Structure formats: C-alpha cells, structure tokens
Amino acid sequence: MNNKRQIRLIVNGEPYKVSVEPNKTLLELLRDYLGLTGTKHSCGLGECGACTVLVDGKPVPSCLTLSIAMDGKSIQTIEGVASKGVLHPIQKAFVDHGALQCGYCTPGLILTTKALLSENSRPTEEDISEYLKGNLCRCTGYTQIIEAVIDAAVRLEKSGGGHVTEQGGDFHSEFKDECAIVGRKMPASDSLEKVTGSTKYTSDLKLHKMLYAKVKRSPYAHAKIKSIDVSEAKSRDGVKAVITYEDLPDIRYGYNLLDEYFLARSRVRYVGEPVAVVAAESMEVAERAVDAIKVEYEELPAVFDPEESMKPDPSTIIHEDLSRYERLIPMTKLDVSRPNVLDYTKIQKGDVGKGFEEADFVIENKFITPMQQHCAMETHNAIAEVGSDGTITIWRDTQKPYVLRDWICKIFGVPPSKVRIIVPEVGGGFGGKTEPKMEPLCVALALKTKRPVRITFTREEIFSCTSNRHPCVVYIKDGVKKNGKLIAREMKLVWNAGAYCELSDYVAKAGAISAAATYNVPNFKLDNYVVYTNTPVSGAFRGFGSPQVQFAVEQQMDIIAEKLSINPVELRIMNCLDEGDENALGEKMHSVGSKKCIQKVAERLRCGEIEEKRHGSLRRGRGIALGNKYTIAAPSCAIVEVHPAIGAEDITVEVRVSTINLGQGTHTVFAQIAAEEFKMPVDKVKVVGVNTALTPYDACGTVSSRSTFTVGNAVKRACQDAKNQILKLAVSKGLAASAENLEIKSGMVYTKGVNLQSIPIKDLFAFWGLERFVEDAGVIIGKGFFNPPTASAYYPSACYTHFANGAEVEVDLETGEIKVIKLVTAIELGKAINPLLTEGQIYGGLGMGMSTTLFENIFLDHGKVINSDFTDYKVARTADVPLHNMTEAIILENAPHRDGPFGAKGIGEAVTVGVAPAIANAIYDAVGVRIREIPITPEKIFEALQQNKSH
Hints:
Blueprint: E1 5-11, E2 14-20, H1 26-33, E3 52-55, E4 58-61, E5 74-76, H2 89-96, H3 106-119, H4 125-131, H5 143-159, H6 191-196, E6 211-217, E7 223-229, H7 231-235, E8 239-243, E9 267-268, E10 274-280, H8 283-292, E11 294-299, H9 306-309, E12 341-349, H10 352-358, E13 361-369, E14 381-386, E15 392-396, H11 401-412, E16 419-423, H12 439-449, E17 453-456, H13 459-465, E18 468-469, E19 472-480, E20 486-498, H14 504-516, E21 524-532, E22 538-539, H15 546-564, H16 568-575, H17 594-605, E23 614-615, E24 618-632, E25 636-644, E26 651-656, H18 666-678, E27 685-688, E28 690-691, H19 707-732, E29 742-745, E30 748-751, E31 758-760, E32 766-768, E33 771-773, E34 780-786, E35 797-812, E36 818-828, H20 835-854, E37 860-861, E38 864-865, E39 887-892, H21 910-913, H22 915-927, H23 938-950
Parallel strand pairs: 1-5, 6-17, 15-16, 18-22, 20-21, 26-27, 36-39
Antiparallel strand pairs: 1-2, 3-4, 3-5, 6-10, 7-9, 7-11, 8-10, 12-21, 13-19, 14-15, 14-17, 16-28, 19-20, 23-24, 24-35, 25-26, 25-34, 29-30, 30-31, 32-33, 35-36, 37-38
C-alpha cells in the first residue's frame, strides 16, 4: 500500500516536488532523497545540532522534523551557504580561525551562526554562547568557534551581508626562507570542503544494492546461551541473511590477549554483547528481524565492582579459560591467586620500605575516576563489499586501518592482497574507533549475500557496545621530607577492563608510565591490576591511562604542599624530573621542559598575587597540575612521489601515508613538512587519503599522539630519498660534479655557492606525448621509514610531551555550583609545525578535559548503561566553557626533541591529562573541600561543604 504524500518545498533556492512517507524526517529527505549529505546524523534526538538546517531562516533539528511538515517551506542546508563557489563570511571566518577540526559538526554550527547573526548583527560573547549551546562540538573546545563568530559578525557588517571573494586562508604561501612553511600558521588543507559540506564521511557513502545490518545483543550482564532460533527472522520479507557464531570461524580476537568473539559463543559477559546479526533491504526490516530472533539464556551471577572482582574468591569467574587464551606479545602477566585479574605488572625502583622509614611525613589517599564515552560526533560506520575476484573492500571510520586489515585476513583466511581498507574523512575518534567491532560482521554478511553491507551503530550502541574510558581506582602513598623532597612513593592502580581485555593491558601500562615519568622519586613502587567485570568493555580514550593517574598524583602533590606549608608550584619544581634524569622505568629523560611549563602557567594564573576571593556566597580559587603523556614507539612508513607538471608549472609532490585525519590536521602538517623539504609552496603538496592498497604500512594506527613525531619523520625521510634521486639526475645532466653541491628550491635544482647554475626539476623528465617519465626509473618515488628508538622493550616510549595545566574557578557556597573562569596550558612541543592547528588541539583538549572533569559519567544499572544519549549523558557546551579570551594556549619550543621532525613532538592527548587535577585543586583553593572522585559535581561539593560544617 502506497501511503506516500507529495510535498513542494524550496531547498537552497531550488524548487522540489517529492513524495515521502509520513514518518520520514527532514534529515532523511535531505540525505536520502536529495543527496544533500552535508546535513549530518549524530544523535537522532535533536540534542547535538549536527543535523541543523534553516527552515524559513530559523534553525531546526532536521532529525526531529517530519518531511510532510515542510510543504511550502524554504530550507537552507550547508550546501546553499556559499554563493557560486564564493564563501560566505561565516564560512571564511571558520576557516581562518581554525574553528573546525573533524568537521562533522561544522555545517550545523555555521547554519546556527547564520541564524544568530541575522537576528543579532553584533552579539556579545554571552549571546553567542547561549545561542550555540544546542550545537555540540567534541573536537574544538569552542574557543576558536566563538572567535570565528565574533569575527564573522564584523565581516558581515563590513561587507553589507555579502560574500567574500577570497577562497579561504593562507593556502598559497610562497617559500621565502628557511623554515618558511614549518612553524607557519595556516588553516587545515581540508577546511574549504568542511565548511561547504562537501566532505564525505563513511556515513555519507551509499553503494549500489547495499544491504543494512542490525545486531542482536544480550540483555544480560552474564549468562549462558542455551539456544538461538533465527528461523522467524530468516523468513521475513526483505531479510537476506542472518548469522550467528556458527557462521564465523572459531577465532578469538584482541590486541594482545585474545579473549573475545565477534559473536558470542555459549556465554555472554556484558549487556549489549553481540549474539546475532541480520542483513536486510532496509534498516527498518533489519530491526524488526532482530526482534524476531529468539535467544534462550540461563542468567549467571555477575560482578560489577573491580575491587570486588579482583579478590581471590570473587562471586563469579568471568573467564574460566583465561590461562589458556593466546597472547600475541609476551607482556601480559597473570596473578593466579586472583582469577579475574587479566594483567598484573609492577614497577619498582629503590627500596620503598626504607624510604618511608626515612620520611618525616607519610601521606596516603584514594582517588576514583569513572567510565566515560568518547562521544565522537560521527557514529561508528562500516561498509563491506566482496568483489568478483574475492577482494574484500571495507570503508570504515577507523583509526587503525592496517590492524583492521590484518584481523580480516586472519579471520577469513585471505592474504593481504585480497583485503583493502579505505578510510574516508572521520568525524572524530579520540581512541574510540580502534576496535574491529563491526567490520567482520559486515564482511561475513557480504560474503553470504554477495552484496555490499552497511552497519551503523546507534548512539546507544556506541555507549554500550564499543569501548569507553577505563574506570580506575588509584591508591597513592608518599613519604616526604620536611623540605618537601619526595623520597618514597607507592601506588596501586585498579583498572576496570569490563568484560574483555582489548586494549586494557596497554592502557594500564600507559598509566603506569605516566605515574613514573613526572617526578624524581628515588624509591618508587607501583602495582598495576587490570580486572574483568561484567560491564561494557573499556578501551583507548584520549590520554590513554594518563588522565586517571594524574588526577590522583597532582591532587596528592597539593595535599603534600598544604601539609608542609610549601607553595605547590615550588614543590613541583623541586621534585620534577629534568633533562638527563632517570625516571622510575630506567629511562633517561629528554626534551622535558616541565619547570618552564609550570612557571609559565603560574605566571598567567597570577599564583603569586593575593586577590579578594569572596563575593557574596561565591568563592574563587586557582589550581595547577603538572604531567606528561608518552608516545608509543611503533614504526611507520611514508611514500613521496614527485610529479612533473604539464605546461608552465613546475612540480607537485604527492604524499602517501596511512595516518587518519581525525580533525587534528595531520595531513596539513605532513604537507608542510614536505613543502619545507622541497622548499616549495605548500599548495603544491597533496596528501592522499588512506587506502591500504595504495598507502603504506603503519604499525599501530593513529593513536598515542604519534602522527607528527613518527609519521612526520617517515615523510621527512621519504622526501629526502626523493630529493637524492632528483639531485643524482641533475648531476647526470651535467649540473654539478656531485649531488652534495646541489640544493632544491621552488621546483629548481641549484648549484651551491656564488656561481649559481640551475635546472628545472621538470626538465629532468623525458617526454612521451603529454606524459613525462624518468629514464631508467619511470618515476621518482621516495620511501621513508621511521622506527623510534626506545630505551625499554617493556615500556616502549618514543618520547614524552610535558605540560602544565592551570584553572581558575568560582564556587557557590550555597549550592556547590562550579564555574570555570579560566583555563591555561603550557606545553613543551619542541617545535609547533603549524601553530594554528596546535592551538586548536590545545583548546580542544582543554574543553574535553573540563567536560570529563565536571559532567561526564556513564551510569550502570546491573551492568546496563542507562544514560546512553546526549539527553542524559552531559557534555560541555558553549555556555559551559570559559570566555574565549580566558582560555590560553602557551606553546613552548625550548626543548626540541633530538629524534622529532624539526624537533617536534605530539600534542593531541597531552593537554587533556592535567585539566581534572587543576580544576580539583582550584576548587579546594576556593572552598577548602577536596573532591577525590570524578565527575566533580555541585552535589559532591555541597555535600562536602555540609560535612565540613558539621565537624
């Protein structure tokens, strides 16, 4: 029965007449009927703003708006904002201020800004924050967005509301001198596509005859599977395949400890564990078929508390076969007396017992951090297609394309030449898009149906069924001399891995490394426990273990400072590791800069000044924190190809890497490195999108803030390899006696010295019609490989990024309400390849750190996530963050790294790590209550204040 209704509407100035089902949303109409994919789907509840469009000039959430209500309406999407290829002033301001990173939320933000400025041409910052608070951005921290809106208002006033003629920012800079490109602020190279809505994400792709898949999941935290009946689901019209564990190889997966099946066999261990999956002609059919699958369970006892689970006699053993599971790397150790402890490691330096005996004071505390979600704006998506020759192609918003490829090869028994991973633009990651959760299911269904298959996780599935930040309990005990010198530190870390290991052992070790690499403690001991529970799986999350540990360590430092009546800045400077010092892991520290960082932050916070802290019931306080984030030592490759241009132009350079551009701007950074090496304009360098059939091997993906340091080095070496080939060609043409006497600049090869001779690089190529080639070689391709040196195989640190965070807060004594007034970060980078993008990473890290400190917590009821959307899981919005001029990024370049490209190190995670303890210390400074558990909420502060009154 056809119940479609015909409507007429105007979209971006064009009239349309379409027939739609009454239940179809405006979002579906725009994306599926009209192909306007700039409007994004993210939450489905109108809470995030990604789907915002203008209806008769007013912003509306298209995910909640029915198409039939649009009859006679005029709609504007992001595709209709630019005019004849010319940017609108708002779009131009977003580009120039770097007010976008992954770009997934950018269309909605630009349209909301357009509506604001049409109503209020000169808004205050408070007006902007209030108007934009319905638009979430997980990447930027909002600082550069607010700056862009303020600037856009001025531009619109000057232009009289017209468009701007220039096309974006400083993309066409000529090479003028040494380091003319490296170290220069310039917008990300993909900014224009993102502000116009033309960027394609995995969620925007649609293949011919594509099927839609939906997963059947466990309602129990722990249960035996007695039977699975898929007969009714298979019989439904439109259902093309239903698979269970019987349709997949009997292979467990994991990053090290192989303990998990892609579809549960015999037992489920958390609410949401996949049991079966359906592929159908539409998502609606797939959802109904999933409901028709009948699974009979026998519920088992479950354990949710990691400290309860790690006991020698827990109420239930979650993995009875743990001792027999395969391990890929011999780094996992078991504590056989504790059956639910999947990993136990220890760090020991000196004699802790003796240190405590010699101490004048012994101080010990306990700190707790919760389960939290990455909340990347693009939900998880995968599409799999099997070609006629058996080649498996997967489109996926993954952070680890080569890891994914290798797992597909292992599971399905195919060689790497038969698997291709293509990564379109990715709408945020933060560590949450590292696990192969959906891709094997897509591939199995594609093999069975001979058709492409898509799986898209809902926001609820992302909370329950991907991975979250590890909850952690930290016990810390310090022995201190009267003068403030730390002489002993003992720590115990208890990490909640959830039901399976995945990256838990790596995250726990990273947290341990963080604990060992900030302060110079002669006697140090750390016990690290990773524990199974019947909760959703924990995994990588920005900071990778460091935020949990530093929340404890940096509050402990303030507690010590107060106990000894020592200035907390001086206490840290007295104890922090310096250049050449040996940390508790036995590594000699290099490129440190901690002292300079904390001094800069203290200066900006005016920590030495005494100011009035009282205003009615409000109290102000300042807090500071020091820390580090290590970068894993794993190898990467890069390929650089030099192309001769046709006509009057000179050459272009193509860079191929398998680093994922998650919004951090790595492709722009690599283009700048290549431009610097060839001494040529950066717009003549193209970085190719990731495709494992074309882009080279990368060991562990886009994680651990390793891209600039590791892949940047590979790019630099690939450029040098290509340059050497060019110089040898120039010698063969008689330009100089040896390549050592030549240099390259602006598409030319020059002789060094006063008697300059030159030859255009394009003239080194031979002709065949319009085509050009290099004699005897065909092409100029440079290859680069970089495997960072490391002092320890067990704790493979390539480098450390050191930083200090500072916060100023205002707390209401009557309600416990917290307002963050100021956030400051100083970070030692060695070299900022692109300061604009670096600032963006800092602001984004500060915003995310503030959000996870004050708002974010996943709540479980018998193992089930009960706040799995943006209505109930609160994240920071524009109205929550400090004013844009009260967020400060201090980039230090005093300690270049000897192994980094141009001395550079990574930044993406480090700045997030110290935000929580800085805010917690500021709250204590303001009202004298110490909150030892994240999130720090008004309720916790109020309760602590009441307890203080009663004592």
